Amino acid sequence: MIKLQSVDKSFGDLRVLKGIDLRVEKGEVLSVIGASGSGKSTMLYCINALEKIQGGKILVDGIDVHCADTNVNKLRREIGMVFQQWNSFPHLSVMDNVALAPQIVLGKSKDEAYSLAEKHLKHVGLGDKLQTYPTRMSGGQQQRLAIARALAMEPSYMLFDEVTSALDPELVGEVLDTLRLLREDGMTMIVVTHEINFARDVSDRIAFFHQGVIEELAPAKDLVNNPQRERTQQFLSKVL
Amino acid sequence: MSESASTIQFFTGFSVNDLPFLAQAAGGTLLISIISISIGSILGCLFGWALYASRYARYILGSILDIFRSVPLIIQLLLFFNFFPILGIPLEPFAAGCIVLTVYTSALVAQVARGGIEAVPESMRRASRSLGMSYFQDMRYVVWPIGARAMLPAWTGVALGVLKDSALVSVLGYLELLRASQILITRTQEPFIILAIVGAFYFALSYPIGKITARLEQRWQYD
Fold first, then answer.
1. Are B58 and B51 in contact (CB under 8 A)?
2. Is A62 part of a structural domain of the chain?
3. ipTM
4. Number of Cβ pairs closer than 8 Å across A and B?
5. Domain containing residue B90
6. pTM of the predicted model, to two decimals?
């Protein structure tokens, strides 16, 4: 379970997260929507300690993420993350992109890491690209590579930060399909997205962020079809 | 008439027998260059990393390195070489030359290396950290290989520059190509041919560096 307790986060004077409370249960898919700059991506960064927080607490499986004694490198093995920019390692083949972290972080042998990599690459539909280099692939393929790379660490949670925002429109579908696949696998996910329809169809709940607070949090279909708060209604009327 | 036979010969012409002498001098150039380029590059990469990682290093180390980048090498050599005997520590020209050239190389490489690290996008590093890599694993397996590719062309320029600048160590009396050529020119009074040959030696030393790095660059291309 991922649990946020009145989390505060500032960049200098700018308060980006204002007392966020949130629980994400094992197996749940939570989508996070809201305007740019509302703090949704920042929240993801705080969950796996890529950003520090100024107040509150974040617990992942009961471990205090921002406690000084916490081994964040170890914690991050449990939390896969995929970014807006796919960040493929350009000097490594597709296979090595995925196999690197299992080898150096988990200490798996080369053979183990490769078979793990192959399994996950096949799963995201890149089974025919194993020896290719990422620069030869489309954005959608590289984003699926990034997903496979995170999955190869066999995390308990996956965080997705606007993973389709930098993609050409015709490539969005293949990445969203991969996320649907993960949902079917029962992966616990927090998905920051601008794809409202996708969020409605795939997630259990949706959180609407507005200026650093969760304005509305409801079961996915309810929030999209029948938003209660005025700001949510305004936002949805603009993007739908 | 044997008048010329009784004249003392000050000058003797350049001959093939002088080539081994030049080759030995080329060895001197090569040795001092290899030592200072390799050690200087390793130090330079460490300095570059420090410049990148720490604000204090940027101020303090950065300013020190700026001195070595900005003061003409020949002045650095003479100052350093003459400084130690004052302290009562005799220093061989070779050692003095190596030290000064190494520091000089490291000062140049430091900026190149800092640029190489900066060429790796921040988001890439977040991605590797999010996979559970430690700071040093990220440095070793992601930043270094990507940064090294980015800095290779600039590093090649530095290496070729240092190889040629090593000629200045001749002012300390270390036998390398330029010094050897001066000795031969004094004896033979044939500067043109000797400088041409020495130039050819420098070319022979530089060309492989350019060739090897060009090939490496090609092999390292992302495809």
1. yes
2. yes
3. 0.91
4. 68
5. 33-175
6. 0.86
